[in-house]
Amino acid sequence: MSARSFKLTQKTVLTVVMLLLSLLSVMPFIWMLSASFKPTAEVFEFPVRLIPKTFIWDNYTTVWFARFQTYFLNSVKVSVVSVVGEVITSALAGYAFAKIKFKGREPAFVMYIATLMFPHQMLLVPRFVLYRLMGLYNSLWALMLPGIFSAFGTFLFRQFFTTIPDELMEAAKLDGCNHFKTFTKIILPLSMPVVSTLVIFSFVGSWNNYENALVFLSNKDKFTIPLGLLQFQTEEQTNYGAIMAASVLSLLPIFVIFLSLQKYFIEGIATAGLKG
């Protein structure tokens, strides 16, 4: 076998293996989609039937009119505010740490990044007490505020901004631009890859946030989707078909966000950590 034939065979085998692994990874989603069109009695039938005998749309109508639209809207509000706030604060902080020289910049950055070492769970009780005192308990702001500030997002922006030549800032300064104009007119337009990366990470994290919703919300009208899914489970029975339908609906915004930004997301992953 020639070297060229061997490389072609090796590439073919690798492609087949990766295809099989990809199919294996998406099988739970395919099963979830299939189960969303089945009655509860057929969800766990064996052998597994991926194509339902009869497609039942009642699961989707039942879910949508059983307060799911309220949970969906609450999740949209929380996610949008958290994402927009996190991108703005992280971009500004990242710019300051990367491009503005001030005393104590590096120690401050190290201490800020060090907060990533603290588990999220250890902050739940202090936040609960603080939000009760501030009157934010059982409001969507209790979910929005923690997501607006992010050490991870600041790290991403800082690493990306260090790859931008300082000559651009010097040229902008000669043209009479202050830091704010330089940031908004020059630096930020070049930062779409890292912006898209943070938007995806932030949106997914906020959309799927279960712990904060469980601790800080008690009114069902304020529930987000992760808590709302539990409402289809009672002591007597669990409507698995409805849960699967709600899960499918809850994934649609994530797919839309990722497909819309995947080009910049891949570029951001490839470049955000090149220099630091």
Topology of this structure?
Layout: H1 3-35, H2 40-43, H3 58-99, H4 105-114, H5 124-134, H6 141-148, H7 151-161, H8 166-174, H9 179-187, H10 192-207, H11 211-216, H12 225-228, H13 240-271
List its traits.
71% helix; mainly alpha; single chain; 276 residues; 0% strand
Distance between the termini: 46 Å
The assigned structural class equals: mainly alpha
Bin the strand percentage: under 5%
* Average pLDDT, all residues: 82
Please provide the ordered H/E string of secondary-structure elements. HHHHHHHHHHHHH
InterPro entries: MetI-like, MetI-like_sf
Membrane topology: Multi-pass membrane protein
Pfam families: BPD_transp_1
Main location: membrane
Can you walk me through this structure?
Belongs to the binding-protein-dependent transport system permease family. Keywords: Cell membrane, Membrane, Transmembrane, Transmembrane helix, Transport. It comes from Paenibacillus violae. With 276 residues, the chain is mainly α. Helices cover 71% and strands 0% of the residues. The protein has 13 helices and no strands. The longest helix has 42 residues. The radius of gyration is 24 Å and the shape is globular. It starts with a helix and ends in a 5-residue tail after the last helix.
Briefly, what is this?
The protein has 276 residues and is mostly helical. The protein has helices at 3-35, 40-43, 58-99, 105-114, 124-134, 141-148, 151-161, 166-174, 179-187, 192-207, 211-216, 225-228, 240-271. Helix 3 crosses helix 7, helix 3 (58-99) packs parallel to helix 13 (240-271) and helix 10 packs antiparallel against helix 13.
